[in-house]
Amino acid sequence: MLPSSPPPLHPSGRTSAPAPAAHCLVGASLSRGLLLRALLLPPAALLPLPGLAAPTVGMVGFQADDKSFDFTLPDGWRLSPDSGRVHEASALFAASASSPQGAASAQVLVDLGKYGNNLDEFGPPQRALTKALGVRSQAPLASDLEILSSAKVSGRVRGSSYYLAHYRRGAARSGLVKIGVAQNRLFRMIVEAPTDSTQLQTQVEELIDSFQVFPINFICKGQSNAGSVPTAGSCY
Fold it and tell me: How far apart are alpha carbons 13 and 54 in whole angstroms?
């Protein structure tokens, strides 16, 4: 029996369904030559695939029901039980989490609108960040927020990019904002912690880095944008 191979990865970075095992071909009406050639072909999982997203690691994570984004929480962080789909005009998803003692917090907001298909259509970093942070009033940001730096960074999925900003809130708290634009959706993650906690600030960076956006097919997107949980198998 041939040794099993790990399942191939979809270009978006997700695991696709495993291919049928080679020994299943024996029952088919194949000639001896065809069967031997099939067995000699390299498994798809061994073929190099460019631009794959790094696998998600960690104990607790969150993935949207339409697979359009996901993130992984640092050890000990708690995901709010009401995280998920939002039934509001133009609002699609909201998720929040906090560190074990509640000193650090994170929020993800996803909205539908005329945002375009990439960041270039949304404007330069500083203007885009200001616009993005004001889209929904429940974002955990106040007038004392000061953006210290902003830049465009590459994502783990080939061709993806984000705007990333470091901000300060008064003298005691600071954090990071990461925004992405895809398929007329605006994705934002906002994470902050006490400025004097090196451990929590490191976790802020890890959490922001884990936040990734993925393109979805038109069937899945249509169901999701209409406010419905996509049917099983329609999102891949």
Answer: 7
Q: What is the DSSP-derived secondary structure letter of residue 155?
A: -
Helix (H, G, I), strand (E, B) or coil at 173: strand
Residue 140: count of CB within 10 angstroms of its CB: 16
* Other Cβ atoms within 10 Å of 202 Cβ, number: 12
- Per-10-residue mean pLDDT of the chain, 236 residues long, equals 48 46 37 35 34 43 96 96 90 95 95 90 80 61 74 90 92 93 94 96 96 96 95 90
CA 64: distance to chain centroid?
Answer: 8
How many other β-carbons are positioned within 10 Å of the β-carbon of residue 163?
24
Asked if residues 162 and 152 have their Cβ atoms less than 8 Å apart, the reply is yes
- Whole-angstrom Cα distance, residue 98 to residue 106? 6
Which tokens belong to 227? 């406010």
Pairing of strands 105-112, 185-194: antiparallel
Beta bridge partners of 129: none
Gap between the Cα atoms of 52 and 69, Å rounded: 15
Considering the chain, tell me which residue range(s) the CATH 3.40.1000.10 domain(s) occupy.
Answer: 60-225
Q: Where are the alpha helices (DSSP H) in the chain?
A: 32-40, 125-133, 198-210, 218-225
Whole-angstrom Cα distance, residue 178 to residue 165? 7
**CATH 3.40.1000.10, applies to 60-225:** yes
Nearest one of 55, 15, 62 to 157, comparing CA atoms? 55
The CA angle 60-220-231, to the nearest 5 degrees, is 75
